[in-house]
């Protein structure tokens, strides 16, 4: 270590203050975001006809601002994504954590991290080039731009989050539980399902929540492959029909909207809804695993 | 190695020329041990001489340590448990284990005991066998009204008895105990020793212990291990507890028992 | 005690096979995607493509403005988010008492981490573009991206700081150093590789994001490169989005070329971060 000379007290206090302010900055940003969302979005509630807002027609050019088709569109596609990502994501996590030999782990983990780093436009692009034509031919549809295409892409995008958080949770289960189980004459498979997974339950649920939260907040990939038709889901048919999510709505329409107009405010209102959904999901996930916070924060992003 | 055993019954499990290796390092060498059924056999000796390693070799728990392998035989019910065609999972069903630090599952007391039964194919209402196991472990009276409570909410001594009940539920022939009382207070320890005495009527117990007094008062047979000059553990003397403690034949045994080292 | 337990053992075999199948299904598309993009995109790559200006309504020519634009945005994001993020992490890891306020900070960070990227775009539009009147600009877009990147940097830095053994700090303090001196001269240098990894991964994500820059700084048809931070800019992800969805007659090769460039950008950062991480692990002094 270099020679230490004594630091004047005021300097130390100054630095400490600055660091402290930086520490609290995240609270400031959340408040700022909330403020702007609310100030631009709440006016929609009185600028737009409330009946129109809660109707099922989204047709802004004719002043129909029904947000239900958008909300349901998001929910529908996100649930579809969950059907893809939960088995794949949790399955992969269990495999990596409990079954795979080391050399396999060394290959799988970087690959999953690679998926995490792929920009969603890239996946959306490949969706257009590869997935959508495939959907069209396979299901014999007029267009492959469907909710299913969106669900598959979103599923892929949320897998890395699920894998990391779930794998972390499984690794935290104490070895002694597995040992006790094996000593009773259980196979590893029985141990995984009977002891390890139940012990990691809250972590796995968090993984699923965070993954689905990620799916719901995704914009570009969905926008590129779901066909952007704001209609209410009608039964199982909807999977192979075009649909639109809240996120895609904001992204595609914000560019053509006059600042301060009703349409503008409604888009911000949708932003508020998205903010609240992510707030709820994340606070629930946080309370489930208060101690594993740090890793979850990093992987959410 | 001095063996005082006067065998009246055929051994329930025996080690023949057992050596245990971690990679190339021989941790335990040339153990020959015949365990008498329905008796409590204690394994004592200073730290690091392989007592737990030997114990864990009896139920093939060492299989989970990478690079650990074994030469020699351990014969149980007429088969060498290290044979190619022996399923270690079945071995562990017949030879149960209780660990040093009580490790009940994060489940209810009932589920802790019932789980061993479930994995062995038992279905339906398990309250009978669970109750029986808890009674055998001298825990039933304390928990019978709280079976749904988490196993982790019990005191240390109770947790350990829960672990014993868990092991008893699958009806093993032998129960291995790896320093089961070292994490417990003296009263809980005595309870477990009494329990062991009761259990030995129906089961065979092999216990590793650091506590010489415990071995002296609670066991029928004692094996004394120590570390040889090549750092491998060896069994020095083995026989009835009363003989070992009053009339040890090997000087190393005598030194250990009289407290000169260890 | 022969191998009689067929049913649980068989169940295990099937179960393990099932799990490895799931893992394969997860991972094979990733490999396929990367290979496919390389195959389709490499023919388009040339020096002119990478350094030239676009022409003919973006349908031919080079990608330079988009590349440099993404670079500017990444640097801009780094300027704002790295110092702030590291300082915030230092506060949480080294100074913050264990009370309600600190818990609130954690909740705020988790929240920021989970906000959808398009909502960040809205926020950036409301605050930076409109309210502060920066207009659609590199400045507005960078600021938006930096707030989005903050949680990643804070979390990874915090983890890196916590990984440094307490004994280091204790020794330093016992030698008479102040807390800040200890952090600056002992803890930070040790935590640097971890921090660097986190910063690179955070910036990697910022570089690939489209939604936050959609209304805050990205533009498609720009006659010339941006002069100042108040100008809008082209950017790779946005460029890719437009050429693949909104330009009729766009040559497919150029599209794939653009994807490849973006992929290389992102992959490059990924590999850099991984290398730093493994080298640091090998040279760790504890």
Automatic annotation (TrEMBL), chain B:
A biological process from GO: phosphate ion transmembrane transport
GO molecular function: ATP binding; ATP hydrolysis activity; phosphate transmembrane transporter activity
InterPro entries: AAA+_ATPase (IPR003593), ABC_transporter-like_ATP-bd (IPR003439), ABC_transporter-like_CS (IPR017871), P-loop_NTPase (IPR027417), PstB-like (IPR005670)
Domain spans labelled ABC transporter: 13-257
UniProt-listed Pfam families: ABC_tran
Protein name listed in UniProt: Phosphate ABC transporter ATP-binding protein
Family matches, as SMART domains: AAA
Keyword Secreted among record annotations: no
Native organism: Leptolinea tardivitalis
PROSITE patterns: ABC_TRANSPORTER_1 (PS00211), ABC_TRANSPORTER_2 (PS50893)
Annotated keywords: ATP-binding, Nucleotide-binding, Transport
GO cellular component: membrane
ATP-binding is among the record's keywords: yes
Upper classification of the organism: Bacteria, Bacillati, Chloroflexota, Anaerolineae, Anaerolineales
TrEMBL record, chain C:
GO cellular component, one term: plasma membrane
Lineage, uppermost ranks: Bacteria, Bacillati, Chloroflexota, Anaerolineae, Anaerolineales
Listed InterPro entries: MetI-like (IPR000515), MetI-like_sf (IPR035906), Phosphate_PstA (IPR005672)
Coiled coil among keywords: no
A GO biological-process term: phosphate ion transmembrane transport
Gene Ontology molecular function, alphabetical: phosphate transmembrane transporter activity
Domain ABC transmembrane type-1: 67-273
Source organism of the structure: Leptolinea tardivitalis
CDD domains cross-referenced by the UniProt entry: TM_PBP2
Gene3D superfamilies named among the record's database cross-references: MetI-like
Main location: membrane
Family, per entry: Belongs to the binding-protein-dependent transport system permease family. CysTW subfamily.
UniProt-listed Pfam families: BPD_transp_1
Bilayer-crossing regions: 21-39, 63-92, 104-123, 129-154, 254-276
Record PROSITE patterns: ABC_TM1
UniProt-annotated location(s): Cell membrane
Protein name: Phosphate transport system permease protein PstA
Membrane topology designation: Multi-pass membrane protein
